Amino acid sequence: MDDYSLITSLVTGFGLALPFGYVAEKFFRAPALVGYILAGLAASVLPGLPPVNPKMIEQLAEIGVMLLMFGVGLNFSVHDLVRVKGVAIPGAPTLMVIAASLAACVAMGFWHWDFGAAVLFGFSIAGASTVVVTKALELRKLTNEMNGQATLGWLVMEDLVSVILLVCLPPFAAAVHGDQTVSLLGVLLDIVKTLAWAAVFVSLMMVVGRKLLPLMLREVARTGSRELFTLSVLGAAIVIAYGAGAIFDVSFALGAFLAGMVMQESRFAHRAAQESLPLQDAFSVLFFVSVGLMLDWHVFLEKPLEIFLVVLIIMVGKMTFSTTIVVLLRWPLDTALTIGSSIGQIGEFSYILAGQGIALKLVDASIMSVIVAASIMTIALNPLLFLAAPHIRQFLVTHFKWARKAAMRQPPFSQLPADTPREMLDGQVIVIGASEVARELFQTMKKEGRRTIVICNPSDPLEELRADGFGVIVGDPTDPMVLVQAHVTRAGALVMPAADVVEAERVLAVVRQLNKDLPVVVLLKTLDEAGDFDPADKNVFLLCEPLIASISLAAVTVEQLVKHEEDEAESESRMMSVRDILDAEYRRSVESVRSGGLRAPAENAEAEDMQSAAAKVAGEAMAAARSRQRKKRSPGEAARAFGERFANWLKKGSSKKSKEKPLEKAD
Questions:
Q1: pLDDT tens per residue, range 201-232
Q2: Cα–Cα nearest to 286, from 458, 37, 530
Q3: What is the CA 191 to chain-centroid distance, rounded?
Q4: Which one, of 160, 30, 182, lies nearest residue 116 by Cα?
Q5: N or C: which end of the chain has fewer CB within 10 A?
């Protein structure tokens, strides 16, 4: 079976990862990745399993790291990186130096290691696992929040520092071994050379890649082949990542991250992320399995004190120092705790640096067992740091004045400016998200001079929205405090133009706790999703993309038919025929919503009124189209006019109901 080592490795790796991950998630309430690590340990000790090739698993795991960082880059723009430079650039290198110094002192003071081994050990545990941090942020939905963006920027800087460390390691080892030919100038020249190559790579990606990669995606997408599109995404991630390491001496993870970041400029970025997601998940599982394969469980019995001290430095020491550094850099306390909780573990870089140290004879092979054991312990216990973060925050705010000041700080765009006019906060429209669907809405609000507040992600065009006169808040719309920042209690309407149905329900639940009568407009993907909302809430207006598209299509089709009529009588006849078709189509759409359980048959009087009104508005649209034949109006203008009439009818209907409510109570 040696010829099938790839197959047998995948069979054992995936075969054990599924049950172990399920048990960890279901019964122990631990992240599934803990189960994946235990699956790797089981694969190395259980007899009778298909043989596993650890080297092959490690290479597949490296592909997982590439794809994962590529996916992160697809959701992380250059502007996001610039926004967090104030905390990432000075903070990450400073923490790595402090953590390495602390670990080196412990190694020399308690274990009596020599200087070279202690320094290598210190830097081996100074970095955090990119995979673990990314998964932790995704699990807690922090990736698109400012705190998550700051953490990702911190990781990027750690990767750059890691590249420099790998360059410095050979001359450092030679100096430790007494090689007189090593000079400080030579080391500095090597560092400058590495940074120059890294700068060349980043420049190429920002200038050339920013043009070519989106262009490639667009051309491949035009072929209509899903296989080619998936292949282009996968190829871009892996080829660029490998080229970054082979040509420019940059880590695979950093190369894949930059590839995703420049591809984010393409309008096909969302599709690229969706296509690569299954591969990211599958290969990242193998990364954690490979960690378990490296563990020698005897080390827990032979060196328990060493492992305990290393875990203490990584989890408590790094979290403490990173939190302090971020606060000193005048960032909010919540951002400091998020970064501290995220980097309280070690991963792939630790193994690489320790392996290089063993090859250069700075340390013996036993250090790898300690590092792997500490890595597994910190990865498994890392969720506890996130659970403890709110309690640590409460303790600090209660007992320390500096913590209270730090807690009062807010990340950029997390709240409205202090000089926001008071009239902006009364009767305003709150829009959740700044997607492509909302673009026309923003243009209309700007043209009409409507007060608008947008709650969006850090990756959205924040400066552009604020320049257009909109209020901008970065945050989670399901957080009551974010909605309070938008003054939802005094708002005129709330719009969710591109929300997932689950997220829309959660937002609506929070909105109703703060404002029970606020009109809420939700755009849904399918008619079936309408059944998930409470029909008793008369201030929720549900729009369905297929139905809107169908009505718009019908309106444009009618206009084109009318333009080609040869005489008035025939035109009138055809117009009535198309009107009947549109009326029947709309009735059938409403009936499908009814059958989906949105409302009971006895409560459908309003639906009947909507049908008749829709037919009336459609007739008006067709008559208007005929009268505009001489004016040469475009189909888009006719469709937009039709939509405006339909929206006006909805508004009149809602105002009519609000006037009738007191009469119903009186009866």
A1: 888 888 888 888 888 888 898 888 888 988 99
A2: 37
A3: 33
A4: 182
A5: C
